Amino acid sequence: MESQLVWAPHTEHGYVLGRVIDLKSGTNNLATIRIECNQPIILNVNSNRHNNNRLIIKDEQTIECSIENVFPSEIDLQAEYDDNCSLMYLNEGNLLHNIRQRYFKNKIYVSYY
């Protein structure tokens, strides 16, 4: 599972990309996630930790969270989905990422019936 990118909850950015490096079974079922460096997350323009729409993580950082809150990421993170229902993995991380991309390209998500 370490080769697959996953979305893990982050207190500052909602969800960040990472790779599972350890699973601890038990009552908590915790996953240790290594956060990917220089990942394509569109951030608030006022943030001092971004460059060209990428989150700058200089050192290897890890976070621990419940495995229930870790979600698979889309294979192509640069792809843009007009309809969120067409995401292969419809989860909080992918949804937030797609909405962020569309928002900063002024393509606000709207559904027409």
Automatic annotation (TrEMBL):
Name the InterPro entries for this protein: Kinesin_motor_dom_sf, Myosin_head_motor_dom-like, Myosin_S1_N, P-loop_NTPase
Domain of life, per lineage: Eukaryota
**Which residue numbers delimit the Myosin motor domain?**
79-113
Question: Know the name of this protein?
Answer: Myosin motor domain-containing protein
Write the signal peptide boundaries. Answer: none
Q: Which UniProt keywords apply?
A: Actin-binding, ATP-binding, Motor protein, Myosin, Nucleotide-binding
Query: Which Gene3D superfamilies does this one have?
Result: Kinesin motor domain, Myosin S1 fragment, N-terminal
Q: Does the keyword Nucleotide-binding apply?
A: yes
GO MF terms listed in the record are: actin filament binding; ATP binding; cytoskeletal motor activity
Q: Which organism is it from?
A: Euroglyphus maynei
Family (UniProt): Belongs to the TRAFAC class myosin-kinesin ATPase superfamily. Myosin family.
Keyword Nucleotide-binding among UniProt keywords: yes
This protein's GO cellular component annotations are:
myosin complex
